[in-house]
Design a protein that fits this description.
- The structure is a homodimer of 241-residue chains.
- Chain A has 241 residues and is an alpha/beta fold.
- Chain A has a single domain (41-223), classed as Rossmann fold, CATH 3.40.50.880.
- Chain A is 31% helix and 19% strand.
- Chain A has helices at 3-8, 10-15, 58-68, 116-119, 123-134, 145-151, 167-171, 199-212, 214-223; strands spanning 46-51, 74-80, 84-86, 92-94, 97-98, 105-110, 136-141, 159-160, 178-179, 185-188, 191-194.
- In chain A, strands 5-2-1-6-7-11-10 form a seven-stranded mixed sheet, with helices on both faces.
- In chain A, strand 1 (46-51), helix 3 (58-68) and strand 2 form a beta-alpha-beta unit.
- In chain A, helix 3 (58-68) runs parallel beside helix 8 (199-212).
- Chain A starts with a helix and ends in an 18-residue tail after the last helix.
- At the A-B interface, helix 1, helix 3, strand 2 and strand 4 of A face helix 1, helix 3, strand 2 and strand 4 of B.
- Strand 4 (92-94) of chain A pairs antiparallel with strand 4 (92-94) of chain B.
- Chains A, B: This is ThiJ/PfpI domain protein.
- Chains A, B: Keywords: Signal.
- Chains A, B: Residues 47-206 form the DJ-1/PfpI domain.
- Chains A, B: Residues 1-24 form the signal peptide.
Amino acid sequence: MNRREFILAGGAVFAAGLSPKLFAASPTSNQIQQHLPSGDQPQAPLKVLALVFDDYETLDLHGPLEMLGHLPSVEITLIGPQSIVRSYQGPRVVADRQLDEVVECDLLLVPGGMGTRKLVDDTRLLDWLRRQVKVSNKVFSVCTGAALLAKADLLDGVSATTNKMAYTWVTGLNDKVIWQPSARWVDDGRFLTSSGVSAGIDAALFYIAQTYGEAQARKIETLTEYQWNSDADKDPYAVIS
Amino acid sequence: MNRREFILAGGAVFAAGLSPKLFAASPTSNQIQQHLPSGDQPQAPLKVLALVFDDYETLDLHGPLEMLGHLPSVEITLIGPQSIVRSYQGPRVVADRQLDEVVECDLLLVPGGMGTRKLVDDTRLLDWLRRQVKVSNKVFSVCTGAALLAKADLLDGVSATTNKMAYTWVTGLNDKVIWQPSARWVDDGRFLTSSGVSAGIDAALFYIAQTYGEAQARKIETLTEYQWNSDADKDPYAVIS
């Protein structure tokens, strides 16, 4: 088998077993609904709902959606305060649904970005978030998306992390959260929180491995020519005081 | 200086000099217009024009835009065949400008994705691309975006690379291109071509280093908590026959 064949066969190579290291940070991962294939039954599509708002950080959103979007069956829906939403970097996306509607989903994705600085004081958004979380099987924040969850008191007693460049601001919003200063991502059952921007891609692949098996995550890693940091404990931007 | 201070001071640490390795793949980099700060003069914004089309690959576009979008002065414009464009992963973006308009720019970004399979036979798109390249200071393709440039005969005699999972298809479109089977990206003066999907992020940081200095690229790497593969020769998905 040459190098290329090895890469293309990556799924099979890694399918033999899940890495214990990968799941070390996931004490409650068995609580999560599994989407592993079962016989000949068609798999229900994974319903992903992603919040967008003006000045969201573009990679916080599109990094995880890239990975999730390569699942065999997935439906991605954007929801926002208005129909056209502008990222911090400039380009605009179309929100498929609008607040204050809530939508049942498997995964609620909450990106961060400069827009969160205003939104932590937006009672309409925080009220919606509390209602939306109730109908979401799992909630996944990237970067300062955790600030919104924390301010809505949704992370009280939950182990979580956030952007390390904005760590003081985010963690100052709520001291009932068990903030982790060194973690690429933290999985605490219903809440998966990642570190800043690019860490969302690594956490998305973790979610895929957790839900569909590691072979699926490795296949998508290869398809996207990504180099997955698959160890949640390996955080090059850890806050060390 | 603790770890966090070291990271936040990254720009200064790396500003001392450009890594020779980083520029090893850039024989003609001196031809490129430099945007390095000069005294007290305000810098002109970098004008980035990004092509979008139905079934573009979301990270091919938003990965590089994330990095470019953190430059001190930048204007990002999306251009497409129609005003609302759907990515392969589902979410839709708004095109600020529409074909067949051409727009003078510093950097033309051409993403790839499944949509390129049709577009390589779209004479309207290929004609526009030839005209647009003439008014673009530099052209940057990600993944199978190189297929469009190759089919429009814009890469004849140029050293270039593309997605390694689609390597046979893309390279079969034009044998006058000097295709590189092992390269995270290739810089050949006016044309910067990257490998698949995620490689576009690494190549975007290379472009930033080339144009604004390595300190700027390292600063953005830190801001986005990214782990830059800054060596063009390090290609984990190289095609080795």
